[in-house]
Design brief:
The protein is α+β, with helices and mostly antiparallel strands and 191 residues long. The chain has two domains: 124 residues, 2-Layer Sandwich (Alpha-Beta Plaits), CATH 3.30.70; 53 residues. The chain is 50% helix and 16% strand. Strands 1, 2, 3, 4 and 5 form a five-stranded antiparallel beta sheet that branches. It comes from Micractinium conductrix. GO terms for molecular function: kinase activity. Keywords: Membrane, Transmembrane, Transmembrane helix. This is LRR receptor-like serine threonine-kinase.
Length: 191
Amino acid sequence: MPETFQEVDMKVEGVTEPLTVNGFNANKMQPFQVVMSDTSGQPVEWIIVKASLAAAPAGAPPAARRRAMLQAPAQQTPLLLTCQVHAPADQVASIEPKFQAALAAPDYTLQRQLLGIGLRLINGSVTYGVPPSPPPTPKSDSGGSSNVVKIVVPIVVVVAVLALAGLGVFVYMRRKRRAQAGAEAAARANL
């Protein structure tokens, strides 16, 4: 499973009976993962879902959690489904638009699929988390040294070529001066 993911959160409630976290985990988790997989285009195994009471998030104080549990039976407490849709890094950005398209489709694609498994989507409850940046790739020893070689070798070659060119110019100028000095000495001797 890839490490990169898009978070998709939504609130749902049961269609025919109140929905509990345990009931969802036991009876609705797998069909829900299939719906998420169909919508995102990612394998079912890459969909991680966590269910909690929507009215009392995990970080809420104990009193708020108790109030949510003691609500009247006629008033159903929706579940918050926090979903991590894992995907290769180059496909993560396409997940949110796929869900938005399924929500906005004229045939209510996502809503219809959820109703088919006994879940009613709470209108306006779908939110998208910012996907975490992928962890830095560890640098291998050979990768670092090969980069140094790619930089140092051309520099050494250029310096060596310039040194040889300078040496060639030096030798040429020296011979030219000696030849001129010898020609001047011969011309003086002939006088």
